[in-house]
Structures
1.
Amino acid sequence: MSGSETPAKRDGTARPSSWPAIASIGVATVYLIALLGAEKQSVIISLLVAGIAAVLAGGWFGIFGGVSRAFSEHEDRMGLLAIVALLAMAAWFHEDHFVLLLVVTVLLTTVATLGLNIQFGYAGVLNFAGASFFGIGAYTSAVLNTTAVPHLLVPLIGGALAALIGSVLLLPVLRTRGHYAALITIAFALLFKTFLEVNDVLGGPQGMPVKGMTLFGWSLNDNVEIGGITLSFYMSYFVLSLALLAVAFVLVRRLERSWIGLNLDALRLDETAAACFGLDITRWKITAFLIGNILIGIAGALFGTVGGFVGPNNYTFADSLILVSILLLGGIGNPWGLIVATFIVIVVPEKLQTIQEYRFLLYAVMVICVLLFRPEGLLPRPVRRYFPGWRP
Amino acid sequence: MMKSGKLAGAVIATLVITLAAAVAEAKDKVKVGYIGPLTGGVSVNGIGGRNSAELAVKLRNADAKTKYDYEMIVLDDECKPNVAVQVATKMAADKEIIAGATHYCSAAAIAAVDTYHKFGFPVIVWGAVLPDITYRNKYAEIHRVNGTMINQNDANAELIHKLGFKTIAVIHDTTDYGKGHNEYFAKAIERGGKAKIVGTFGVTADQQDFTAELTQIKALNPEVIYFGGLTPIGVRIRSQMDKLGLNAVFDGTSGIVSDAFIQGLGPLAEGTLAFREGAPTNKLPGGKFFMENYNAQKYDNPPEAYGAFAYAAMDMLIDTIEKVGPDRKKVIAELANVKDRDSIVGKITFDDHGQNMVPVITKFVIQDGKFVEWDESEYAAGKRKLPGQK
């Protein structure tokens, strides 16, 4: 991969080949299919160890430099390829309800962390109540799916409600800074859970069931049969979640690249300096906070429908911390890192079910190792590229 | 990283060896499932239940007369509704798993019942006490060997009346478990008519400091403090009562019938009342057999209060599979006929909702660091007075 520093590249006539990135997506897909399909304790643990070893070896031999260059040069193509890879994965597991549920959980959690990414990663607005806004979305779907509201609109309403309820926090968050702003969102997370527990209309501590989605008279909770092949009912949710993730991803990427993203970055790096250059700090903080919450709420609403049940225990402060830890693990500000981190945070503990009560111990050790050896996250945010493919 | 690599290598090696040792017999393999909270605040109960269910499987596999070789798949519901739905989907969607003994936490069980119904997966609940789990719907797949909180609170109120207490303060956690207990206890007390509830306090299940509630209760000066909740906050409330000098009889529910409660409180646990469905393990026809076999396995944890129920649930599932073969539909049909079936927790009869109608409730009091049956205790005999009794 050291060949990418050739004179041909310098004068701007040739771009680095996209093959390293294509190969890495291919390898990752095959690996994920093997991991998700594995059932035996020994196989799962060997796969996890092999995965860690491969990543370490890749880092040692400097393969990743080429991969990341290829990624940043051909991002749009790689995005499409990632979608194809996910579809291939879903096709492989088309009958396997549980694996699809797990993958849908990963996709929707990624959408939620993309929302957090706008707040934390770009604008530097702290939000430790991510799971609460996720919960607002989920409860919206629990309440509205039983009414005549078109089910496709429900996630959007969930997002709007998350932003609306979140705006209660705007004033205190804007008036405080750093740790104090964080404390306010933590307080909100605790209040939100207690509110749900004492509220009998919303099912109280026991939670409430969520009706499945019906789109144009077609119930998404039924298995699909096409030409003798039975598709799990989670497949339709998978397609929906993937579409949502694709839209959210493009949106976040465009936002980052636009002048809004530039303003948000300036705001995060130095508020005073940004204000001196005439940026309206309040306005941009509000923008980031609301857009983030909308994304989290939409993901939550869809997730509530997929899970079929909402309860206060799902939306505790601890769950918010898990969302934040995904952000830290993936590398704050890099949406690609988020996808990798969400897979790790959701799939690994689930796969470790085979070692029963010790699974969180092993999982915690893994996370600590990552933070120890990659303090900036697995895929740190690269330097801003003003024009894709442009070289001085 | 080198160290962790070596460690992982060692772990894999051990796992491979144990796996190789396990695969030795030639009978048809049948998979059964177990779900309980293996991590989190109530994990002792989940692990105790897991060990007990595993014991049922081991004893059966050791018997040469069985038709099948059983393998138990264990999943962790973390006592959370969303995780419960996830693992229930995982277990029920796996066609190789025929039936399962599932859930200690009511919130987890109630979230998962729809999933079991959807997949036609027969389960026997082994520890969750919320009445709704069996009674909200009439699902043929759902059964339960332990009783509900209704029976428990009737017995509790009866004892309170018998002891002549007049004033009671209620503390309950705001989960379905605590709120259910509050509701059924209040009803039972009202029916009795002689005692009065002077105050009711809801607390969250992870609350640390109860000074505010306990100070108010102190002003009300009740004779009894009824607590509807699980062991962790039960321990906190009882010890903070002591710090505030609050003297009253501490009256708990099945949620504190756990050795962890006594360990957490030490001498302060003395004289605490608690209630549980079924006869105490050592009083059961198969209780001695169960404890002897359990101890022989040298598990790190005791079976805890519901271990015998987990054993009974798993044993009944295996009995049924032996009789009708590994077929989910046949298992469901056969479980509907369970009547006066002997088990280590006494006779089991499922009603049309799959609920075991055991009327037996055991009253416990903690005496000298042990849960002793009330009628056999020195407190009932009048030799000792309950701490806080006025």
2.
Amino acid sequence: MAVIYDLLVQGVQMFLVLALAPLLTGFVRVIKARLLRRRGPPLLQPYYDLARLLGKEVVLAENASWLFRVSPYMIFAATWVAAALVPTFATGLIFSWSADLIAIIALLASARFFLALVGLDIGTSFGGIGSSREVTFASLAEPAMIMIIFTLALIAGSTQLSTIAHIMSMPELGLRVSLGLALVALILVAIAENSRIPVDNPATHLELTMVHEAMVLEYSGRHLALIEFASMLKLLLYVSLIACIFAPWGMANPGAASLAFLGGLVLYPLKLAVGGALLGLFETSIAKMRVFRVPELLGAALMLGLLGTLFLFVSGSF
Amino acid sequence: MNVEFHAGFFVFALLALAAASVPLARTPRGPVIIYGAAAAIAAIAALSGAIAAARGIPLQVRLPLGLPGIGVRLQLDALSSIFALIVNLAAALASLYAVGYGRHEHEQGRVLPFYCLFLLGMNLVLVADDAFTFLIAWEFMSLSSWALVLVHHKSEVNRNAGFLYLTMAAIGTLALLFVFGMLAGGAGGYAFDAIRAQELNGFAAGVTLLLALVGTGSKAGLVPLHAWLPPAHSAAPSHVSALMSGVMTKVAVYGFIRIVFDLLGAPDWWWGTLVLVLGGITAVLGVLYALMQHDLKRLLAYHTVENIGIIFIGLGLALAFKYHGMTGAAALAATAAIFHVFNHCIFKSLLFFGAGAVQTATGTRDMDHLGGLIHRMPGTSFLFLVGCVAISALPPLNGFVSEWLTFQVILLSPELPDWGLKFSIPAVGALLALSAALAAACFVKAFGVTFLGRARTPEAAAAGEVDRYSLAAMGVLAALCLLAGIFPGVVIDILAPTVTSIVGGRMPVQTEIAWLTIVPIAESRSSYNGLILFLFIAFAAYVAVYVIHRLASDAVRRGPAWDCGFPDPRPQTQYSASSFAQPIRRVYGTLVFRAREIVDMPRPGDLRAARFSVRLRDLIWDWFYAPVVVGVTTAADLLNPLQFQTIRRYLALVFTALVTVLTVVALWQ
């Protein structure tokens, strides 16, 4: 019985992230539009876009290979699984022990690997520019993320997200320098990973500094829908991750009463809303960076993460 | 079956095969017979390695050959048997691959005999139980592989590669000669049992460690002793490249483990830090070098340097934990290192086989002359892709598991009381993470430029799929990548006796944990389950495919590429190997390679073509090798007049030398 209950919670989590991801993206767009004093698209526009794309036929470039057709599903599946493993409204999900935080980040790296490959598949210069920049940024963002994980894991004594969330919610932990460094670094990495301003602009097309859009330029129809969906899931994943680590309140523990789950389910969208609003505010208040300034930003994130880890190696009380 | 028979069987089978291959190399069916037989012998050897590993009782033989009083001692203990299993597994598959690939070789007589001897040399290193046999086998391995590097000796590049390799191999063996001299001590006990019984003082042990690092590190490709490796590994035929890069470097790692963990006794406090830091630097420099290459095989060979770095990081951590008596953590570190030995052996062989297939199909291995091969070589490209994903440490394949284990060890290390380690381990952790991310970039480049996009030359456009034997060998390796990735607990348990033999402890039994999860220390701390993750991804992908094809559109139309409205049909407009790496070169290369981009743009009205060139400098070559080369050349020039003297002067020279030596000896006492 307990197993079925756990599976149910895991299933709810899987479909909850799927249902909320476009909403979060739509919400960020609305916030940005309002801050610019535009009316902006409706809140549910991303759902309409996805539905429209799914219904359209796919136009494949003449020399597209099988990898080009398979990759959207791989990218979507890997991102979805990663998002489903980050605790949102409840911790200790039934499959959470199958992948710790390092594995979740590596799953996202798998998705990125295929995305960068398909950028090269058609053999256009735009695809190449996107891929080569994506892997360059990732070569700094991923180590920065690993360093952040080290910082968290050294404090919590675990790389399991559920345990980290549990330790982080304990009041005796107090304020720590290393956690502050990790938070700043994590926000920088999250912005870069999700192709947000100032690293990349999710709203442009045909801009010489674009990265993500350049890789997916040749996609259309359901393939494009899957890739767009995957990037929405990734945004949700990072906001959930920050919420789970730095605002771990109100998440139901395994074996808690149903009321706790309901509370978690109410609180989680609120956390997403706060995260989305802050992201919108940040994006409107900053200008896009030149491409070769981005490595400096990510290098800063890497150094902050490394500093946090180093502090903890020196003394566990930092 | 008795042990002498076993040892004798392999030695004489491979020797006989080498002898038989000399006449057979001239016949059209010869290579197939030889490679088939080599595959069978290596498979039997792998099997006997597996049986020995499973039985867990060390075997020892003493053959009445070699030096008087010592003889040739051979053994097969836990450490040797696991390496014998890994090495012969890869050797068997390389031979299977060569059944198909080898027939494209024009110089069969230069390949076949040395190939058999090379296999024999590597196996003898693993089973040697005294210093004399070890060194002979080591030289045997070096020289036979040197001969294989020089198969295509007409090319200037290959001759230089062979010369550099021979020089470095000689330096390495010289260092090992001193290692065993130090280990044997004054009494001169050259059998490994006698060496183990001997106790070296701290200083002598430290010197021995440094010499062992030079001796085995130069064969494995540890920075700064790696310079010979990429040219030599890429010069040989591809199945030999796979053996050199995937397997011989592992024999060198075996040599390091045997000497440092087994023969040298208890480690000193600074050993772990040194090995760890060298490993970290090797990992990052190796992958950065690899990213700058446009020759597919050279890229793979440089990437071997990176993986050796990762293995040495694990070994360094194991040494540090062993010194501080933290056996559990040392076992975890050693498991991570040997797991990576296995993984690298598997996927690097797979990738070299793929590179060989590309070379067979197109006649080139320059990525800038390839492209679009995924259409022409679907099997090879799929298997190569599996290798790329595995080597980039992406779940759910095997490369991720060993990297994940290494990260778990790093997270255990704040408990170490040593301040040097407290500062170096986080830095090495960052280097390891950096090298993992750069490896993914490197293999996006390798696969993307070679197999994806449009064909850059007519040869690439006309390529065809390779033979079944090659595909079968690659298929087995790709399957192993997946199996080791989703059942890592089985591999960890197989490695347990070896780990116990080198650090005195083992990881908890993994195969009894529910769902085949791996739990290095405690479940609350960390766990990973490749199987569940694999099924989870498969399930998610299936749901996506099912829902979309059922409920949404499944119509497809082919059209020209869009490319923002301005597609250019010329394949030159694609990203090439060097343009793909340009952002990375700008971020890291200015520091590491002193990369300079020179743009020669003619003035308006000038009809010259604009030129763009990149200049990279290998700082390690400049700082480490070039002074040695200059020094040796200068000394040779200074001494050159001594070659052209009259007999009287020679006699006077001999007399003066003798008097000087005698004076020195007299004053010394």
